[in-house]
What does this fold into?
Amino acid sequence: MTTISPIRPNFLKGALAVYPTHTPGSRPSAVIAFQFNPDAMKRTLAHRAAPPPQTGNTGAAKEDVLRVAGPPVETISMTVDMHASDQLEDPSTYPAVALNGLHPALATLELLMYPTTLSASVITQQAAAGQVQVSPADLPLVLLVWGKQRVVPVKLTSFSVSEDAFDTHLNPIAAKVELAMQVLTYMEFTDSSIGRDAFIAYQKAKESLAQINRTSGTLGDAAMLTLLPR
It folds into this structure.
């Protein structure tokens, strides 16, 4: 009798897509797929306050109570687990891991918070030449890819790593990385940018999902409308 194994679901992996340029149509220079999807994601939204009303204008203050300057400031945090045990069991197939452990993987994530050494060199040369205005260094554009509904531009604001195990050469072979990110909106990008287009698509996806909820009634009941003021 032949035993038929159950169909295994095709799990999507979360990832960070790194773009060296904001130009629409550009391809990512790297896609950092998570070895294991984080078990949890924490998201926080806070209002982006509108400019304060003119002093003494009480009427304007009342009108501004529901006004905001733009989309809320959204932050995302997650913990990414990393292990080299599987690769170390087959060092001939994964020679880089056998030689360096998780150092390359950790460095890839850490460098998302660094300007390139080339940018730093340009800034140093500008300062040495006595330029009054020194161009600030740019970080790469990063998109968090978490399913088709969440492809969103982010800026890493915090990176914390706990290295939990080491090989005989003191290379880390098990680690937990806590990532904190700020979602970048159309207010942070120029009119022509991959990041701007990605955020607008992200907000439109939210609006579409909210419309599904309105039609399915998951969070509401039409009967409640009779209780609302008219």
Notes: The mean pLDDT is 85. The radius of gyration is 24 Å. DSSP finds six helices and seven strands in the chain.
